[in-house]
Each structure stands twice: as C-alpha cells, then as structure tokens.
Specification:
Radius of gyration: 25 Å
Strand order of the largest sheet: 3-2-1-4-5-6
Amino acid sequence: MSKFDERLELAQWVVDQATKSGASETRVSITRRRYVSLDYREREVEKLEESVENGLSLALYVDGKYSAHRTSDLRRDALRSFVEQATGMTGYLEKDPYRYLPEPKYYEGRSQQNLDLMDPNYGALSAEERHRMVQEVENAALDAGGDKIVSVEAGYYDSVSEEVVVASNGFVGTAEGSNFWTGASVTAKDEGDKRPSDWCWEGGVHRGGIVDPVAIGKEAVSRSLARVGASKIATEKLPLVVENRTSSRLLRFMGNGLYGRNLQQKSSYLEGKQGEQIASALLSVYDDPLIPRAFGSQLYDSEGIAAKRMPVIEKGVLKNYYIDTYYARKLGVDATTGGPSNIVFETGEKSPEDWMKQLGRGILVTGFIGGNSNSSTGDFSTGIYGFLFDGGQIVRPVNELNIAGNHLEFWHKVIGVGNDPYVFSSWRTPTIVFDALTVAGA
C-alpha cells in the first residue's frame, strides 16, 4: 500500500462530492508540509519555528464559471459542507469560456523518472543536529570576523512536503520533496555609518547539499569584509562580468516578457519575436524540470501538464514562451507550461577569473540594488555593486553604480558565458559577461 493511497482516495471522494453538487469539472489537491526554521544571533537562539500544515485545495468549474477554495479541515463531514457551499457560491460568478481543466492530451507522456527529491533520512534528523549546523555557521563567522564585523545573522531551515492531485478529467499525480538550507548574513564595520553586508547560504533537496557549515560562515564574512571601503567611480563604458549567483536577476528582468498573460494583454516586448534573434548567439537557455535532485524539478506542472525539457533561447533565438492552458486558449496556441522549473544554460569554458584577465578592465558585478523592468517596452534600469578590476586583478570595491538599457539590445552584448552554473538555486545561472556598457557613477 502506498503512503499516498489514503489521501488519493479522499481526493477522489471530494471530486465525486463536487460532481454531485453540480460541478462540471473539479481539481483537488491535498498537501502536507512540515518545516523547521532556526535563527541565531550572538550565539543564542533568536527565533525557532516549527509547523505542520495540512490542507485541501479545490478548483471548481461550474457551467463556465470558475472558483478556487482552500480548507485545513479534512474531516469528511466538514468537507461535504465545504464542497456544497463552494459550488453554490461559484454559481454567482461571471462565465469565462476559456477557464476549464487542461485538455487530457497535456497529461500524456509524463516521465516515470525518479527525480530523487526526497531525502529518505529526513525523519532521522534531530533537533540537536539542526542546532549544531547553524551554530557552526555562526561560530565560524564570528570567529573569522572578530571586531571587524557588526553582526551575524545565522539561520537554518528544512522542510518536507507531500501532495496528491486528482482531477475529474483523469489526472492523478503524487509528489514529495525535502529541502535543507543553512547560511548567514554578515554586516561589517566601515567608515562613518556605512555598514556593508553580504551573505552565503547553501543547501539541497538532500541533507548532503550542506557540505561544510564552517566554510559557509567564513565565506559570508569574507564577502562582507570585501565590500568595506566601497565607493562610486566616474561614469565610464566598461565590460561587466556578472557573478553566477546574481546573474539570474537580469534574466528574470528579461523573462517578464515571456509569459502568456503579458503576451495576451499586449504588454510583452517579446510579442511576435518567437523564432527571431533576441540575444547573442552565445546565449542558450533551457527549462529542464527533469534534473535529479534539483530545486525546480517536477514530473508535472501546477496544472498537470507533463514536464519536459523546453528550449527557451537557443543560440540567441527565442524558441518558446511560458504559456498555461488558460492563456493558450485566449491566444489560440498550444500550451507549454505556466512558469519556470529549472533554468539551465549552455556553459562556456572560462572561469570569472579567466574573463577578467582577458578583458583587463571592467566591473565584477556581485549584486543589484532595486531596479525595474518594463515588460511592455523592454526598458530596464538597476543599481549594481561589486568590484572594479584592472589588469585582470580586483582593484577595489564599488557601489552606487547604475546600468540601464533595453533587453532587445542589451542581451546582444553578451560576449561570454562562464563555466560555473550556480547550483544553490533552481535558476542555475553561470557568470555572464557583457561587452562595454555605460556604467553610471559619480
């Protein structure tokens, strides 16, 4: 007997109840999630949270009308009343001819691959072990920083989740997963009231993703202290070497134009660009939900669409948008999937250090400040900080700089992709190198 069987049977029972109450179509998901969160400051526990959550989500389609509901009361008597009331309320809504369950063809071809997203030893992890990991991070940071730092905020987090999904048109799915994280944010001393800060967090869907808590604490301190003395530079045209763990920020800005909602509402600068060159030929980006032990991996998406690897940009050419079934119907196209899973790149052969040596002078970007991106026009601007390098060597930290442009021009300036995809995120972005851009400073 599968551990999911009881909840699958309950989900099917709710679907049947909804049908009896007048629903044309129904989708039910039942989730269970447990998480533990620890924060330490000054070698003491600052916050401890532990929670177990159970819930049932109900999507109802009644004569062309749609509504979504959620409850944490899973007793059948309570659920019967919940379903009846939800179905009755749905009848008062406006009809939407595009809102119904995905066509069953989208469920077909689901991979049977074991994505290994659940650490089987999660239940054996003790409270003492959780505290030990975050203590090691904090102690290492405090010891390494000494009187050069103002504070350390160390943390630990883990979670485990299970889900069953049943839809009235034949979809049945189960999923489970775990997550483990630990890290620290460190604030350093600087001149006057300046307080530069930086962080280091590492984790994985298995406990083994946290390799060395001591190294994590030391890295957080090192990054924070490296920012001491940062200042502006004069406005200059310089190449940018954008660090792997932060380059996803730029990609997310660009990605605003990829969604079906924006396409349908004529608010995407990428409308009509499918099949066209929108970036440098060095840029190839894929959505890959079938990577074992990756944060964004899944066998089906939030609608039940079977997961598959999808090219987004290949050699600079736009290949696919993110379009769920609702907006696909409005646009008169086939659905792909509603949102990103794992974002992966075709990587290059050079490290960030190699690129700095090749370029001679430029900015190593290690973070962004604020910023905005207009999905309709593609215009964007954002603050940056990091390090000026010259002769291939880091000269000094810089901050309060700004870059701006338009995505349809900006991404053509990519002249290199690093060999270092960032593994502590579902956005596995490498270092991305841009040709000379105007960096606004003093």
